[in-house]
Write a structure and sequence with these properties.
Order of helices and strands: EHEHEHEHEHEEHEHEHH
Strand order of the largest sheet: 3-2-1-4-5-6-9
Number of strands: 9
Structural class: alpha/beta
Strand content: 15-25%
Helix content: 40-55%
CATH topology: Rossmann fold
CATH superfamily: NAD(P)-binding Rossmann-like Domain
CATH architecture: 3-Layer(aba) Sandwich
Distance between the termini: 60 Å
Radius of gyration: 18 Å
Shape: globular
């Protein structure tokens, strides 16, 4: 019998901290088997010690490296007997600054992790997802996919790409009975959130500070909701998405004023 012993299983990238770690914790509490993958080995070791070696498998993974992703999926498959109920493409990075003041190398790294990483993960995991009834491919997009955001232009573009892939895949993968959805979080308390942003975070409104566990709850809810495509966190961000579609110039100018650009 496999290590998972017939339990439902979730493969999580970016699992060593933040939203990925909280998702691993929540699904572990629900009795699922966890595959936790990250570039941060120390964080993975701490998570495995917390969850218990019988309840998870971990492995270092740079999501931008397709060969590493193939190897990670093979490790996961061996532990679950070829089952993958959820692929959670969560790993991501952000760098801030004016586009012309950031190095091309840093900008390319954002694309390689945030976009190519999601493509790598989905390519590698599809054989397992196809063999698992009611499987879900769940991706982390961002509220910055509602409108191109200044000072994080490439990050914002990368999350627009993830949103677009999610929408396209949700139709393409129907022929395999695989569902696809994404999360569009606003300001989440994670290691990626700078102290400056935390200090200035509003206490109410769509960009109030949200705890990472709220994203984990959305992943759980998405598995049990076969219809919903985009999960906004908080839900008020859906109105921002509508506003961007209805009057992008108005929202663009409002962003410029708010950010004093």
């Amino acid at each position: 019998m496999s290590q998972a012993a017939g339990r439902q299983s979730i493969f999580i990238t970016g699992a060593a901290s933040g939203m990925g770690r909280e998702t691993a914790r929540l699904f572990n509490e629900k009795g699922w088997f966890i595959g936790a993958f990250d570039v941060n080995q120390a964080g993975l070791d701490a998570l495995q010690a917390e969850l218990g070696a019988d309840n998870c498998v971990t492995q270092t993974l740079d999501v931008s490296d397709k060969a590493q992703f193939d190897a990670a999926v093979a490790t996961f498959s061996a532990a679950t007997g070829g089952r993958m109920d959820i692929l959670f493409n969560n790993a991501g990075i952000i760098m801030r600054g004016f586009f012309d003041e950031m190095s091309f190398e840093d900008q390319l790294k954002i694309i390689n992790v945030n976009v190519i990483g999601v493509m790598n993960g989905t390519h590698s995991a599809l054989p397992l997802l196809k063999e698992t009834p009611n499987a879900l491919c769940f991706n982390t997009s961002s509220s910055s996919a509602t409108m191109g955001m200044p000072l994080i232009a490439v990050y914002s573009a990368s999350k627009h790409a993830v949103k677009g892939l999610t929408e396209a895949w949700s139709n393409e993968f129907k022929r395999y009975d695989i569902r696809c959805a994404d999360a569009l979080p606003g300001l989440i308390r994670t290691g990626m959130t700078s102290d400056e942003f935390l200090e200035k975070a509003p206490t109410k409104g769509p960009f109030r500070l949200i705890e990472a566990v709220e994203v984990a709850k959305v992943v759980w809810a998405s598995y049990h909701d076969e219809k919903k495509l985009h999960w906004y966190i908080p839900e008020e961000l859906a109105e921002l998405d509508k506003a961007a579609s209805n009057d992008p110039e108005l929202l663009r100018d409002k962003l410029a004023r708010n950010m004093e650009l």
